[in-house]
Design a protein that fits this description.
Blueprint lengths: L1 H13 L21 E7 L11 H15 L3 E6 L16 E5 L12 H9 L3 E5 L9 H10 L1 E2 L10 E5 L14 E5 L6 E2 L6 E7 L17 H8 L4 E8 L5 E5 L11 H14 L16 H5 L28 E3 L5 H4 L10 E2 L3 E2 L6 E7 L5 E8 L8 E11 L2 E4 L7 E4 L5 E2 L9 E2 L2 E2 L3 E5 L2 E6 L6 E8 L1 H4 L6 E7 L26 E2 L3 E8 L6 E6 L5 E5 L14 E7 L9 E8 L7 E5 L2 E6 L2 E6 L9 E6 L15 E2 L5 E5 L32 E6 L7 E7 L1 E7 L5 E6 L7 E5 L4 E2 L22 H5 L12 E4 L3 E6 L12 E5 L4 E10 L2 E11 L8 E6 L5 E5 L17 E7 L16 H8 L4 H14 L4 H8 L4 H12 L5 H9 L4 H13 L8 H4 L5 H11 L7 H9 L7 H11 L3 H12 L6 H9 L5 H10 L8 H7 L6 H10 L3
Parallel strand pairs: 1-2, 1-3, 3-4, 4-11, 40-44
Antiparallel strand pairs: 5-8, 6-7, 9-10, 10-11, 12-28, 13-26, 14-26, 15-25, 16-24, 16-26, 17-18, 17-23, 17-25, 19-24, 20-23, 21-22, 27-49, 28-52, 29-30, 30-31, 31-32, 33-34, 34-35, 35-36, 37-38, 38-39, 39-40, 41-42, 42-43, 43-45, 46-47, 47-48, 48-49, 50-51, 51-52
Helix pairs in contact: 1-24, 11-12, 13-14, 14-15, 14-16, 15-16, 16-18, 18-20, 19-20, 19-21, 23-24, 23-25
Length: about 1150
């Protein structure tokens, strides 16, 4: 069997494979004379206007079906189960049920009546709440009929933006294109065992913050938390086939009625209805015209509230209103313990109030401490909003001016997720009653709800009773709410305007979720700026913006060209109040990068990199030059990106896989420090690349290659390089890279340039791994896979203002609408990371963070491209753009920028300690010019207890003439491995002999330090290299892929000599797990013969044979051919 397996693997590696596409068998169409009959069962009115619109939704879907397919007959049955019983349902080919679920599901009492129809093959479609039913008899029926259901204490019902990017080959998927939409997407459904007969249709990875609520029947449980922690895919829509031929479909979306206006959202449902009826779904799906706003508003159960009326769009003030509005993240346990702190926690937070609570109510009496606003918030108790009628009974303000009833004070804004907010009436307009007792005066509402008042002067306390109204407790549902009182905009409640998807500046903060321990505020917004693609922050705290209008299909829209803006907060209150146009022109249309270095400004745009100089400081360029040219990908997202200044005084930048090549300012090809032309020709470079050069463009290095669309690099103070890389859309393979220098990162096949889908020996079953060729020898591992997305700007945070973020990567991903921190930890010779969300557009999917930078005060500024879509070179909104600022949770929001005097040694040292990269760049250049005059101050900084400060000082000290070797010696003797790494990197840049830094560290305890020695050996020409490499190779543990790839990239430039030195060192003991890995990775001519020995070794696991066979593909020449023949016994 072993011989046969080897021969099959060998044949696989040598013979071309021809693939055929396997088509799913089509469903036979109904005869033309037999129409498709669809029955809709619309549940009773449930939620407020625009939500759970069962009747309006059924009518809209029915009309869409008949518009698209003339031979379809529809009937919509209103108010639930028909009066005439199951007979009214006979003759339909499928039934569509859109209703409230759980214990109130309209099908629950009729399971036995309906089952014979199901056994006859009648289809069944259940929408949104209609997929929830109790476990037991009804749950078992749903498993049979539609393949799955929402089970309380197993499934969850959060609101979130689901991104659907890939779809199965199934009739329901026909014509459906990738889409993202905000809904109450239930997930973690209870499905049939082993998904028998069930095909997931809409699947995605819910973000972790969808489980931010405490555990409850609908909000969370240990099983779902474990599933999300393990990154298990979740299914929000599915198709099922029954024994006997019946078909079912479950769809957890449909909370927001407006979502039926989305073509893809609607098409999934229409296709499913036709499929469950055994109809033929057209090749492009059931296509219907988008409903108008008037059609969407028609037939709803509730009258249109006044606050939902459309308002003429008004031009906002130059400075956003409500100055210094701050939204603060709240710890998950804030509501439970009712604590109050400066972090915008509620001043009152009740325990859950239910029918078990004495009197169904809680007393509230809290001081206002001079607050000017009052927010009364009701949230669900973690089990959904059903029956959550709530009253603020006898709410009043007390103080020196006496007593003021809130029923006599007009609120500024009020919203409720069901019913309406009413004075002296409950959410349904009936008298207020709590526990059967009338309420003398009060405000009736329903979870989730926010009511905002402005507090008149002269009042110091708020007093009320928060209770459950009998309108909810008299029902069978589990009424349970929490009452919260805030004096700042509430971070956890449903935001006013959120349900309507408001895009107004006033709602910008409320539509974001803010991470624990931090707060966010709006720094600038339209019309101050539009669509920022990239930002930088100078040493004065001013934000420089690439403002893009002339993008792709909108090219020429602004005839004067796109702009580089400077936004400044003159009065220091945390909001920009001055805008300056630094430069405007068509030559920078669709710019992707701006980097500010004192009086120099680098702009990456189109096929060029421009260097602007402002000599007189008037914020207008006095000189414009070309730094680099000839870059492909003008008006393409995968072209040139932003530059950044490194701690070594050099520039770092990258381009995506359309950039192709970099040429000098005169258009001539660049030959880099390794002697290679900088071009994607697989010699060895291909696809996206990372670069380093001097400030004038000289000493050009190519540091990494074979990325797809690596958007911007960040460099920490130790010289480590970090970036993100986007996958081929739809494969959930977005990655974060630690860029180990001179590595190949696996987007395309290293030798052939073939894409990840091309068959190859040993390819992974896991698509993200397969996508990046991670099973191939010679591919550097990923730091982190983040799933689906459109990754953008990245920064390293090394400031003090946000200490919990120190040392973390801060990254924007416009696809899932999030700005994150990546908590990086050591992993052998490399690193690993975990995700922490900072800003999430939970209620506004137009939030598209495009870049993030660290300001001089240590705060973060996040740019928001703000658009309905992202990717595919589309741009749907040209009129908006925003900047948000992230500060500590207890921050006052002011923006105080330290003033620095770079002309003095001490002032420049302060600048070198700045958390702001632009300030450090000015300080670095000033201190470098000072040379020996700055040596004493730098030596003092190099002895700091702060390793970040030590690193920055050592880089500069090492570049003072005559100080290089002793600075390297100081660095490699540091107890911190990161500082020893700095020493190795500095020695490389100074071209020191390897005996001065490799030999002393050859047995270093840190695998990361030894990794860096291997990187240093790659271009080393010393005769000592092979032996030093062998000494490092014998320290490989057989497990650390980072270390293995460092060994590989070090030896690739001298593979035969290095491999021979290793064999001489280990002798016959080479055949160990570590040794086999080294053979697998090596490109030496003698490696194929050892691969044969491994394959023929009885101890080699059969599962590993494909891996070793794949290694042959990376060899050429007679040695490979002889080895393969020997394997076949020839």
């Amino acid at each position: 069997m072993r011989t046969l397996s080897l021969i099959c693997l060998l044949a696989w590696s040598l013979i071309p494979i021809h693939q055929g596409r396997c088509e799913s068998p089509g469903v036979a169409p109904l005869p033309d004379d037999k129409p498709l009959k669809v029955g809709f069962l619309a549940g009773r009115p449930s939620h407020g206007y625009g939500s759970h619109e069962h009747y309006a939704g059924c009518l809209l879907l029915a009309n869409s079906l008949t518009e698209a397919l003339p031979n379809v007959e529809v009937k919509v049955i209103k108010q639930g189960w028909p009066d005439e019983g199951v007979k009214a349902l006979e003759g339909f080919d499928t039934l569509v049920v859109y209703c409230d679920g759980g214990a109130r599901h309209l099908l629950n009492p009729h399971i036995d009546e309906l089952d014979p129809l199901m056994k006859k093959g009648v289809g069944l479609v259940c929408i949104h709440y209609g997929v929830e039913t109790p476990a037991g008899k009804t749950g078992d029926a749903f498993l049979d009929w539609i393949g799955g259901y929402f089970e309380a204490n197993w499934s969850v019902n959060p609101h979130w933006v689901a991104q659907y990017e890939t779809f199965p080959e199934h009739p329901i998927s026909r014509g459906v294109k990738p889409f993202a939409i905000n809904d109450e997407w239930y997930y973690h459904m209870r499905f049939r065992d082993e998904m028998k007969g069930v095909t997931p249709i809409l699947s995605a990875h819910p973000p972790v913050d969808t489980l931010r609520r405490p555990d409850g029947p609908h909000s969370g449980n240990p099983a779902v938390r474990k599933a999300i922690a393990n990154h298990e895919i979740q299914h929000m829509a599915w198709a099922a086939e029954r024994e006997g031929g019946g078909r079912g479909f479950g769809f957890t979306g449909g909370h927001f009625h407006w979502n039926w206006g989305d073509e893809n959202f609607r098409k999934v449902m229409l296709n499913a209805i036709v499929w469950t009826a055994h109809g033929e779904v057209p090749p492009q799906g059931v296509s219907s015209g988008d409903p108008s706003q008037e059609q969407l508003e028609a037939n709803q159960d509730e009258p249109k509230p006044a606050e939902a009326a459309s308002h003429a769009k008004q031009k906002p003030d130059a400075k956003p209103r409500n100055a210094k509005r701050i939204k603060r993240g709240v710890p998950q346990d804030a509501k439970a313990n009712g604590s109050s702190s400066e972090a915008a926690q509620p001043i009152f937070a009740s325990q859950p109030v239910s029918k078990q609570t004495p009197g169904h109510a809680v007393a509230i009496d809290v001081p206002l401490d001079g607050a000017q606003q009052l927010f009364l918030v009701v949230t669900d108790g973690g089990n959904g909003i059903a029956c959550d009628w709530a009253d603020w009974a006898e709410p009043r303000l007390l103080g020196p001016r006496g007593e003021l009833k809130l029923t006599e004070l007009k609120w500024k804004q009020a919203s409720s997720q069901w019913g309406s907010v009413n004075v002296n009436k409950n959410a349904n307009g009936q008298p207020l009653r709590i526990a059967g007792e009338p309420v003398s005066y009060g405000i009736g509402t329903h979870s989730n709800s926010v009511i905002r008042f402005e507090i008149p002067a002269g009042y110091e306390r708020f007093v009320a009773l928060g209770g459950l109204d009998n309108g909810g407790t008299d029902q069978a549902g589990a009424s349970e709410v929490e009452f919260l009182v805030y004096t700042q905009a509430p971070p956890l409640a449903i935001a006013p305007g959120a349900a309507s998807g408001s895009h107004e500046i006033a709602d910008a903060l409320e539509n974001l979720d803010v991470g624990t321990g931090v707060a966010a505020m709006l720094f600038a917004a339209e019309p101050q700026l539009l669509s920022p693609s990239s930002i930088d922050i100078d040493h004065r705290g001013r934000v420089w913006v690439c403002e893009v209008v002339n993008y792709r299909g909108h090219k020429g829209k602004r005839a004067e060209g796109d702009r580089i803006l400077i936004l400044e907060d003159v009065d220091g209150d945390g909001q920009a109040d001055k805008e300056t146009v630094f430069y405007q022109g068509t030559d920078i249309d669709s710019a992707h990068g701006v980097c500010v270095l004192g009086d120099k400004v680098i702009v990456s745009a189109g096929d060029k990199v421009f260097l602007f100089t402002d000599r007189d400081g008037d914020d207008k360029p006095d000189h414009q030059a070309v730094l680099f040219s000839g870059i492909s990908g003008a008006q393409h997202d995968h072209g040139i990106h932003a530059f950044t200044f490194g701690p070594d005084g050099k520039l770092y930048f990258n381009f995506g896989n359309v950039g192709q090549q970099v040429r000098d300012k005169e258009g001539k090809p660049i030959i880099d420090a390794a002697g290679n032309e900088v071009a994607a020709k697989r010699q060895p470079y291909q696809e996206g690349m990372v670069f380093r050069c001097n400030l004038d463009g000289s000493d050009f290095e190519t540091l990494g290659w074979n990325f797809r669309n690596n958007w911007m690099v960040a460099v920490d103070s130790y010289g480590s390089i970090w970036q993100s890389d986007n996958d081929d859309d739809g494969n959930k393979g977005v990655r974060i890279n630690y860029v180990m220098e001179y590595g190949n990162y696996g987007y395309k096949d290293e030798k052939t340039g073939a894409g990840w889908q091309s068959p190859r020996t040993g390819m992974s079953d896991n698509i993200p791994e397969r996508h990046w060729h991670l099973n191939d020898p010679g591919v550097v591992p990923n730091l982190l896979l983040t799933g689906a997305g459109s990754p953008t700007g990245i920064a390293v945070y090394e400031g003090d203002l946000l200490p919990t973020l120190r040392g973390e990567l801060i990254h924007c991903d416009a696809g899932p609408n999030v700005c994150r921190a990546y908590v990086v930890d050591n992993d052998g010779a490399g690193y690993q990371a975990e995700i922490r969300n900072l800003l999430t557009g939970s209620r506004d999917p137009w939030f598209r963070p495009s870049d993030v930078k660290v300001a001089p005060d240590g705060s973060l500024v996040v740019a928001d491209w703000y658009d309905p879509g992202v990717g595919g070179h589309g741009m749907g909104d040209l009129d908006r753009g925003r900047l948000f600022r992230i500060v500590p949770a207890n921050h006052d929001g002011n923006y105080k920028v330290p003033k620095l005097d770079f002309s003095t040694v001490n002032g420049a040292i302060d600048g070198l300690k700045s958390p702001n990269n632009s300030a450090r760049s000015v300080a670095w250049q000033s201190l470098h010019r000072m040379g020996a005059k700055a040596e004493s101050a730098l030596l003092k900084m190099a002895s700091s207890e702060n390793p970040i400060y030590r690193a920055r000082a050592l880089w500069l000290l090492g570049k003072i003439e005559g100080r290089g070797p002793k600075t390297v010696a100081q660095a490699i003797a540091d107890p911190d491995p990161n500082l020893r790494i700095v020493g190795v990197r500095l020695a490389r840049q100074l071209n020191l002999e390897i005996g001065e830094y490799v030999t002393p560290l050859i047995r270093d305890a840190s695998p990361q330090v030894r990794r860096e020695l291997l990187v240093a050996l790659r271009h080393c020409e010393s005769t000592q290299k092979p032996q030093r490499w062998a000494e490092l190779a014998v320290q490989y543990d057989g497990k650390d892929r980072w270390y293995l790839e460092a060994l590989g990239l070090a030896s690739d430039t001298d593979a035969d000599a290095c491999f021979a030195a290793w064999i001489e060192t280990v002798g016959d003991d080479w055949n160990t797990p570590a040794g086999r890995d080294i053979v697998w990775r090596s490109r030496a001519k003698s490696a194929p013969a050892l691969l044969v020995k491994i394959l023929q070794d009885p101890a080699t696991d059969e599962a590993d044979q494909a891996r070793y066979m794949r290694a042959f593909d990376f060899h050429d020449g007679d040695e490979k051919e002889l080895a393969l023949k020997s394997l076949l016994g020839l």
